[in-house]
Amino acid sequence: MTTPAITRAMFDDVMVPNYAPGKIIPVRGQGSRVWDQEGKEYVDLAGGIAVTSLGHAHPGLLGALTSQAEKIWHLSNVMTNEPAIHLARTLCDLTFAERVFFANSGGEANEAAFKLARRHAWTHFGPEKHEIIAFRNSFHGRTLFTVSVGGQPKYLEGFEPAPQGIHHADFNDLASVEKLISDKTCAIVVEPIQGEGGIMPAAPGFLEGLRELCDKHNALLVFDEVQTGVGRTGHFYAYQKYGVTPDILSTAKSLGGGFPVGAMLTTAKIAESLGVGTHGSTYGGNPLACAVAQRVVDIVSQPDVLKGVEARSTRLRQGMEAIGEKYGVFDQVRGAGLLLGGVLSEKWQGKAKDFLNAGLDEGVMVLIAGPNVVRLAPSLIIPESDIEEAMVRFERAVAKVAG
Questions:
Q1: pLDDT tens, position by position, 200-253
Q2: CA-to-CA distance for 115 and 146, rounded, in angstroms?
Q3: How far, rounded to the nearest angstrom, does the alpha carbon of residue 199 sit from its chain's CA centroid?
Q4: Topology of the domain covering 8-57+303-402
Q5: Is 331 annotated as a binding-site member?
Q6: 142 annotated to a ligand binding site
Q7: Where are the domains positioned within the chain?
Q8: E strand or H helix at 176
């Protein structure tokens, strides 16, 4: 039987229609360059939505994966494995954490974080202390619990009834949090920089204020660092950039460099509330994922790599600002490190997808963060020459859209 040629049209015939992928199918990547089925080359400023932290086909990650693949792939959590213990130890050494739970994605890491927050409150204070405060325009995953905590109603529509006891305040508005918090609050959940909500950084004093409110009300502070973690902001985790330590932290995306892995980090005292049998994951902490993530962490945590993120950020920001000023398309470029967002000016509101599509036509891959923000989240080690070429191509795309 002859295997038919794979085309974009086939997607609509065989896949559930919850995605609307672009018209190209990438088939090969090397560093920060990607090639499609037709052999056309693209500079990748999307990074698989802030995932491919070391680019495509990184030799260190290939070596870690193939080496582990020759040993053992999977055991389940009936037994532990060496790569999982090694990675957990490393994450604890590099952060505030003392205990780690491994999952397969950011959504699963957040699910574990939110369950731990409720379980901890139930254990120490009773069932009445179960309420969670999150923020409008936040995004925490696609499970029913995480999409309910997320502050974008469109993702919950049609899946109600949602878990109860979840309230939403306004990001960067401490007063709105103070109106909601009470002794029934078990946790405040926040992204240090809102990702899907438009690359919106926390304002000075905001995270500090949340820490104080949590301490006052015996609530846990949960940082969702799925998108900001593992070097993305120029610090290993963004909480280190802001100088505010959470009680629980979720991480994924860049952690595996493209291999599915997620983790929840917390203290030993808080972790006690998830005793044997209270939570689990069949694939979480599997040797393949942990071996790859270990190599990512070993590379990204190096001071020269983190310093390089800041240098690359400056060049990308300058390029985007220059394009924005020349064509009048961006009001500002905001974010941190290599998580940047060009905020569209009033004239171009709602047109972010147009710039993404024009970018593909010109050979550069970018993202959007809502209808009004063009998002960049490239490899943390993207070569300067690729940044320069990407800006040339993106300017052509902007010129095409702006007329």
A1: 999 999 999 999 999 999 999 999 999 999 999 999 999 999 999 999 999 999
A2: 10
A3: 11
A4: Aspartate Aminotransferase, domain 1 (3.90.1150)
A5: no
A6: yes
A7: 8-57+303-402, 72-300
A8: helix 174-180
